[in-house]
Amino acid sequence: MLSDGALRMLVLLHFNSLGFTPVQLAWLFLLYEVAGIVTNLAAGWLAARFGLAATLYGGLALQIGALVALAQLDPSWGVAASVAFVMGVQGVSGVAKDLAKMSSKSAVKLLAPKEDGGLFRWVALLTGSKNAVKGLGFFLGAVLLALAGFESAVWGMAGVLAVILIAVVLFLPAGLPGRLKSEEAWGGWRSKDTRVNRLSLARMFLFGARDVWFVVGIPVYFQSVLSDGSAEGRREAFFLIGSFLALWIIAYGAVQAFAPRLLGAKGQPEAETTRKAIFWAGLLVPIPFVLAAAAWVAAGPAPWLTATLIGGLLLFGFIFAVNSSVHSYLILAFGSAERITRDVGFYYMANAAGRLIGTLLSGLSYQIGGLPLCLTTAGIMALASWLAARRLSSV
């Protein structure tokens, strides 16, 4: 997750500094999200067939390969060739990340204690720490780009990740399940549990609501505000943007880890947790619309708007984190142990689909209507997530 966050920031800031448009920047991440959709569907079957340890090793190895490939990028290539190449490398990185994430999340369902809210606590701890590490990756990517340059940063991350893979292979504790028993054929993607399917739909719109502003819109706006166009100004902007996104992700992870205590999960019935999931989904909806109105009133970059965006997006992150943590618990609570890798895979397929939609809309909405349209689109996605979550109460 550290290298995944760092790689995203490296690619975004490096190519934005080369003059790529918002739509071109969005294209760089599209195959990454498409790969996440395909991987999460296939990963459940792969884990059931070959074991969670094998999919974890595969994810780490593919990420190393993606970093080594990205280091071969030639600055003399044209825009079309550069976009196509980076899209392909990002696709491999997307496969790597989702193999590793699906493996770890499925293992929690099988290994965590079930009594006294133990599953919710373990899921929240894993998810929160994962996102805190990814947030550090955003900061690391910005720092490496400013201090070491693009190519050196990529090679350095590949080397460190290779050491980590060797350590995982040598020291992974016994107990991570091998091949899982399952009598379902390859084609059993969609869950037989209506709750899993409806939760997955809510998850898709939830992450779309975040990535509409997170992937392109806000970083590009901040760079336009913080950089004066000089080399020194760009480096300073890299640090500040990376620091904000890192802070956002780290705080998001911390709130996720705290969510079980915030929601009183200890000894709480599943139906009550579902009700709270619907309530918190509703709280998220007005924030992007309020920020969009502020951006429309400002009609361009302004110090008060930047301060409003920072405060509003931190509040968005707090509520978003609670929603995400509850979803991560409910998918494991709803999913059956016999096909947990497939239920989790289907759920994270929806997660990746939401990121794909959000990524595409981020570039398109920002280029067509600037920050106001970008944030309005995020609000529409948040509204759709709440409407989908409400259907859980009727199951």
From TrEMBL:
Chain ranges passing through the membrane: 20-43, 50-71, 77-96, 131-150, 156-180, 201-222, 237-258, 278-298, 304-332, 344-364, 370-389
Pfam families: MFS_1
Gene3D superfamilies attached to this UniProt entry: MFS general substrate transporter like domains
Alphabetical UniProt keywords: Membrane, Transmembrane, Transmembrane helix
GO molecular function, one term: transmembrane transporter activity
Organism field: Pseudotabrizicola alkalilacus
NCBIfam families, alphabetized: MFS_ArsJ (NF033734)
Top-level division of the source organism's lineage: Bacteria
UniProt cross-references to InterPro entries, sorted A to Z: MFS, MFS_ArsJ, MFS_trans_sf
Protein name: MFS transporter
